[in-house]
Design a protein that fits this description.
alpha+beta; five-stranded antiparallel beta sheet
Length: 197
């Protein structure tokens, strides 16, 4: 016969000595929580946009702010040079609310199958746009000056899959035959794209 009082006490002891994970992240003992668990100063400076796409996304998730764990929110600062692009991507665990702080930004997303409708809008300073959960979307600075936006996401760990990087930059490569057939082009075109990524 099991002594349930003994088993319960043993369970409590084991839990106290184990790291408790929620959403894949460790929960901190409440008596050890400090202000820095809820603070991040990483969005003060403009992101480095000197890259192939001309944009920089600076994320603030549960990895930067442990106090976000289980709260269901995160954010990002997005800097763009003129012509800069945040390439087509999806967030596997979040809807995104996008707010333009400076500049003129074209945004768009594609609805799900079978319609695959392209929804697009040009945003100015102060404008807000929503990218629904798991839909492919992008942003592009169409102005002549730098642009800045803030994205708010409905998950403390929203995830991101940049479409071109995932398709053409996978390790190991997806077979050129598969991609050539999917994109209805030649193996040579696919090999060239894979080389770039």
């Amino acid at each position: 016969m099991i002594n349930w009082t003994h088993a319960t006490n043993l369970t409590i002891i084991i839990i106290l000595y184990m790291t408790v994970l929620v959403n894949g992240f460790a929960c901190k003992n409440p008596s050890l929580v400090q202000a820095d668990d809820f603070y991040f100063d990483g969005l003060r400076m403009r992101g480095n946009t000197s890259n192939a796409v001309g944009s920089k996304v600076s994320l603030v998730t549960v990895e930067q702010v442990p106090g976000l764990n289980t709260l269901g929110i995160s954010m990002a600062r997005v800097d763009y040079e003129p012509g800069g692009l945040n390439p087509p991507h999806v967030h596997s665990r979040a809807t995104e609310l996008f707010t333009v702080l400076e500049g003129t930004i074209e945004v768009g997303f594609v609805t799900s199958n079978p319609e695959n409708r392209f929804i697009t809008k040009v945003l100015q300073k102060g404008d807000v746009f929503v990218f629904p959960f798991r839909l492919v979307h992008f942003q592009r600075n169409i102005g002549n000056t730098n642009a800045l936006a803030i994205s708010t996401l409905s998950s403390q760990n929203p995830g991101i899959v940049t479409i071109a990087n995932a398709v053409f930059g996978s390790k190991p490569d997806i077979s050129t035959d598969v991609l050539a057939k999917a994109f209805q082009t030649s193996n040579e075109v696919i090999e060239n794209l894979q080389f770039k990524f």
